[in-house]
Specification:
Blueprint: H1 21-34, H2 40-54
Helix pairs in contact: 1-2
Length: 55
């Protein structure tokens, strides 16, 4: 939900919020595209780990 109450849907099926959002979203998009054997939960976990290492 956006700042004006409107419902937003990401174009690529990946959303991220917070100070490390761009790092986590970038990692998630790369994993989603190239690591197709990972589950959604595994992609989230790895994306957050990558973002944490960068931040």
């Amino acid at each position: 939900i956006g700042g004006h109450g409107d419902v937003l849907e990401p174009d690529n099926g990946v959303a991220a919020i917070g100070s490390g959002a761009m790092y986590a979203q970038s990692a998630a998009l790369a994993l989603k595209k190239h690591a197709t054997h990972l589950s959604a939960a595994e992609i989230v976990k790895e994306s957050l780990n990558i973002a944490a290492d960068i931040c």
